[in-house]
From TrEMBL:
Keywords: Membrane, Transmembrane, Transmembrane helix. This is Transporter, SSS domain protein. It is a multi-pass membrane protein. It comes from the Bacteria. The chain crosses the membrane at residues 6-24, 36-59, 79-98, 119-142, 162-182. It comes from Leptospira vanthielii serovar Holland str. Waz Holland = ATCC 700522. The keyword Ubl conjugation does not apply. Its main location: membrane. InterPro entries: Na/Glc_symporter_sf, Na/solute_symporter. GO terms for molecular function: D-glucose:sodium symporter activity.
Length: 221
């Protein structure tokens, strides 16, 4: 077991400190419901797009994608790539219509488009299936991945306890950040994770290259 050193704790706590600073930066700007849910429609394409990508990059993503490629090859990723079609249509076509309607949520959009008992049933059904059942599956998937990752970094601590603390922190900052704050937090987390990922890949390459070099020298002798 490799113990945590000072810089290990620095890199572990650094994202939490940045998240708190972003919260303090954007918390004072939330003066309306539209600002909280829609950021007044003033997010740049880069922030909005990166935040959308970062939302799909959770703790379970590397594990899931690795398993899919290992079992089904690259083409197996179409199990979730197909959603990109809906994303493109939403961004380049439906987004303009949505903004013109003035609706804040998709359920509000249904209320504006349809009426009667059928519309109420559709709203309730959508809220239950997507807002409840689908989110339970996603949360279970992500939390299960975290329960597998946490013991690697903290073998002496109870993984479920750490997971609860992380969940409480997540609920705290997502409930008060609003769309603008969450989007900027997502952008930070996305590039921070990419930086750590590339650093880890470089380290693995250097170690592997060093090992192969030593092995080739041994064979030569």
């Amino acid at each position: 077991m490799i113990p945590f050193h000072f810089f290990d704790f620095v890199f572990f706590l650094f994202p939490f400190v940045v998240i708190v600073l972003i919260l303090l930066r954007f918390r004072s700007k939330q003066k309306s419901t539209k600002e909280y849910f829609q950021a007044e429609g003033s997010l740049s394409w880069f922030v909005a797009g990166t935040a959308m990508v970062a939302t799909t990059f959770a703790a379970d993503t590397p594990l899931a994608v690795t398993e899919i490629i290992r079992g089904q090859g690259i083409a197996g990723n179409w199990i979730w790539w197909y959603m990109s079609v809906g994303g493109f249509v939403t961004v380049f076509f439906f987004s303009k219509l949505w903004k013109r309607s003035g609706a804040s949520t998709d359920l509000e959009l249904i209320r504006l488009r349809y009426s009667g008992k059928e519309a109420n049933f559709l709203r309730g059904f959508k809220a239950f299936v997507i807002g409840f059942l689908l989110n339970l599956v996603i949360l279970g998937w992500v939390n299960l991945a975290m329960l597998k990752i946490i013991p690697v970094f903290f073998p002496l601590w109870t993984a479920s306890h750490i997971l609860v603390y992380l969940l409480l922190f997540g609920v705290f900052y997502t409930s008060i950040a609003g769309l603008r704050g969450i989007s900027y937090i997502d952008v930070f987390q996305f590039f921070f994770s990419l930086d750590r990922l590339y650093s880890f890949c470089l380290l693995c390459y250097q170690l592997t290259n060093h090992w192969w070099t030593r092995r080739s020298k041994i064979k030569t002798r």
